[in-house]
């Protein structure tokens, strides 16, 4: 069976990857694409190399009508995909030539049209309030009319699986009406998303056997099986798969385009994208999440930022020997990357791999590795968390290396001490106060006493909160003496209160994200007092800058998620 197109050519006539992000994806609660968004999404999907882009329902949504107008007026120069308009068949009792919705499909200018039609007799009778014969005529008339006007037509057979289980003859009659009127293929829709893969595949095989029609599949994700159902349908014989970017869609969503493509390409050996484009998968997923204004799912199969992040020490020890031992594919094939997380679950191998990632050579420092493993476990048991704070981890590793080669003493602080290892100053003391003023303003004031470049410095500053005031006082003391510290910008500050089972020993964990012109980095602090926890994270942020001062390469030590 040769379902694939030659690499680099449009796949529209062989195996279809059909994207419906702009129609079904837009049916997700919370998504509202502008016309400009829709044009941008279409361009990105086309650059990935999908076969068809369903742009929306012209005539039903003014925005979609406008999208097709602009798309066909030259704003969308598709290189791979065929632009497709979506709509319903003519209404019952209305001649097809007089149906406004059908006219809007023709007017859209799209070369292909997907018609949604009922195939479940209960829907025909109760929702559409017509009979099976008229529904068959609605399908046939509309398909014929559109094909006579030069459109390529697909039929989405709504509720096909439920309808076929309830009344197989009617469901088949509806497919038959479409194909005999000239539809390219009929797409079997699991509209309520209630199917499971084995049963769905059996039905698809039966339809292939009974009809010989070219079939497609459209799966909603209400059982969490939309991707699995789509793949099962492909293995059972469909040659057209409808998906949406990141699984956006009505209710629980649709089959996610990215894992579907990842699986088709890497597991089923179907090269559905133009050659070289598979490595664009992760980038495209994130770009489309950005346009949808939805945070990317960091655990999304194939493309998530954490999808190839390894936490368990046993995994890391095998990965050290060969990354293939714990990765189902090379992440770079889909444009993703592997990371090793260092946490309480780590052993020596995790630390060694992380050190390499951070640009540190621990190969001749076994004691440093042992020390760091012990320290991470000790601190994480007390509420610290290093998986999102690579910069604090790096400072700790540097301290362990310095202890191992004798250039530091146990008394040199690390991240849980008063001043971070590598910080270009020593703390004598700090004080923070909170002032609720008569005019209702709440202002914090911080004073720090530091030793910097052998000088004792005292600085006081105000801020809109205690941490802001501390940061300001610290900068006031340091920047005149170490001007490069002014480049550090604090970009995010997250606080989490950690309570043990009894709820009595709450500690506060603070994560600070910082950046300068060249890199971003994350640091952590933990203490029973939120200001002290913040102080640790702030000091690590400045210490990290001190350690990397003068570097200009774009080598981020931060957690990349
Ligand atoms: C399974 C899917 O997700 S299919 C995609 C669904 N997407 C949408 O519904 C989004 C766009 N929809 C809309 O803008 C509107 O619903 C419109 C313009 C299509 C219709 O609006 P209205 O005419 O006000 O009707 P309303 O939304 O209340 O009901 C839908 C009508 O379409 C009819 N209908 C439903 N399916 C079909 C079909 N396959 N073929 C023809 N008519 C259909 C219904 O019977 C109902 O008719 P009625 O008004 O005579 O009862
Ligand atoms: C067509 C479609 O979106 C469905 O049946 O779910």
UniProtKB/TrEMBL annotation:
Organism: Actinopolyspora mzabensis
Keyword Transferase applies: yes
Swiss-Prot/TrEMBL keywords: Amino-acid biosynthesis, Branched-chain amino acid biosynthesis, Isoleucine biosynthesis, Transferase
UniProt xrefs under PANTHER family: (R)-CITRAMALATE SYNTHASE, ALPHA-IPM SYNTHASE/HOMOCITRATE SYNTHASE
Domain Pyruvate carboxyltransferase: 15-282
Pathway participation: Amino-acid biosynthesis; L-isoleucine biosynthesis; 2-oxobutanoate from pyruvate: step 1/3
Reactions that this protein is recorded to catalyse: pyruvate + acetyl-CoA + H2O = (3R)-citramalate + CoA + H(+)
Name of the molecule in the record: Citramalate synthase
EC number: 2.3.3.21
SUPFAM superfamilies registered for this protein in UniProt: 2-isopropylmalate synthase LeuA, allosteric (dimerisation) domain (SSF110921), Aldolase (SSF51569)
Top-rank taxon: Bacteria
Claim: Transferase is one of the keywords in the record: yes
Pfam families attached to this UniProt entry: HCS_D2, HMGL-like, LeuA_dimer
Transmembrane segments: none
Protein family per UniProt: Belongs to the alpha-IPM synthase/homocitrate synthase family.
EC top class named in words: transferase
GO biological process: isoleucine biosynthetic process; L-leucine biosynthetic process
An annotated Gene Ontology molecular function: 2-isopropylmalate synthase activity
UniProt xrefs under InterPro entries: 2-isopropylmalate_synth_dimer, AIPM/Hcit_synth_CS, Aldolase_TIM, Citramal_synthase, LeuA/HCS_post-cat, LeuA_allosteric_dom_sf, PYR_CT
């Amino acid at each position: 069976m040769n379902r694939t197109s030659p690499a680099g050519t449009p796949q529209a006539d062989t195996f279809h990857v059909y994207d419906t992000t702009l129609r079904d994806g837009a049916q997700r609660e919370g998504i509202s694409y502008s016309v400009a968004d829709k044009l941008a999404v279409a361009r990105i999907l086309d650059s990935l190399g999908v076969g068809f882009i369903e742009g929306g329902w012209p005539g039903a949504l003014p925005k979609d009508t406008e999208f097709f107008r602009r798309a066909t007026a030259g704003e969308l120069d598709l290189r791979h995909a065929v632009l497709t308009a979506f709509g319903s068949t003519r209404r019952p009792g209305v001649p097809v030539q007089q149906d406004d919705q059908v006219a809007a499909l023709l007017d859209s200018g799209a070369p292909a049209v997907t018609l949604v039609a009922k195939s479940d007799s209960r829907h025909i009778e109760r929702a559409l309030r017509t009979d099976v014969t008229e529904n068959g005529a609605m399908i046939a008339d509309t398909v014929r009319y559109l094909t006579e006007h030069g459109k390529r037509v697909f039929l989405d057979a709504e509720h096909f699986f439920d309808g076929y289980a309830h009344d197989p003859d009617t469901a088949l009659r509806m497919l038959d009406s479409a194909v005999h009127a000239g539809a390219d293929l009929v797409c079997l829709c699991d509209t309520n998303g209630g199917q499971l893969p084995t049963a769905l595949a059996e039905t698809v095989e039966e339809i292939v056997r009974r009809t010989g029609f070219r079939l497609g599949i459209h799966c909603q994700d209400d059982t969490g099986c939309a991707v699995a159902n789509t793949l099962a349908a492909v293995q059972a014989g469909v040659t057209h798969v409808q998906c949406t970017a990141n699984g956006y869609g009505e209710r629980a969503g649709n089959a996610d385009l990215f894992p579907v493509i990842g699986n088709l390409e890497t597991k089923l050996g179907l090269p559905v994208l133009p050659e070289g484009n598979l490595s664009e998968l992760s980038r495209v997923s994130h770009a489309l999440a950005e346009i949808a204004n939805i945070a990317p799912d960091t655990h999304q199969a194939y493309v998530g930022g954490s999808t190839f992040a390894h936490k368990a020490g046993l995994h890391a020890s095998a990965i050290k020997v060969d990354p293939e031992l714990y990765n189902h594919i090379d992440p770079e094939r889909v444009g993703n990357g592997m990371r090793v997380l260092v946490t309480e679950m780590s052993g020596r191998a995790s630390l060694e791999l992380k050190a390499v990632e951070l640009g540190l050579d621990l190969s001749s420092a076994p004691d440093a590795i042992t020390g760091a493993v012990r320290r991470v476990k000790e601190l994480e048991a007390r509420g610290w968390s290093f998986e999102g704070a690579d910069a604090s981890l790096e400072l700790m590793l540097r301290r362990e290396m310095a202890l191992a080669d004798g250039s530091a003493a146990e008394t040199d602080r690390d991240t849980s001490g008063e001043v971070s290892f590598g910080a270009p100053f020593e703390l004598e003391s700090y004080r923070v106060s909170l002032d609720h003023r008569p005019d209702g303003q709440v202002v914090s004031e911080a004073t720090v006493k530091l030793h910097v470049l052998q000088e004792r410095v005292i600085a006081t500053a105000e801020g809109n909160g205690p941490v802001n005031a501390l940061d300001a006082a610290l900068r006031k003391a340091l920047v005149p003496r170490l001007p490069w510290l002014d480049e550090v910008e604090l970009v995010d500050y997250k606080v989490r209160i950690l309570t043990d089972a009894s709820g009595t020993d709450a500690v506060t964990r603070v994560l600070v994200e910082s950046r300068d012109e060249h890199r971003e980095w994350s640091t952590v602090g933990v203490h029973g007092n939120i200001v002290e926890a913040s102080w640790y994270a702030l000091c690590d942020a400045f210490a990290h800058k001190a350690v990397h001062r003068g570097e200009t390469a774009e080598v981020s030590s931060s957690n990349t998620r």
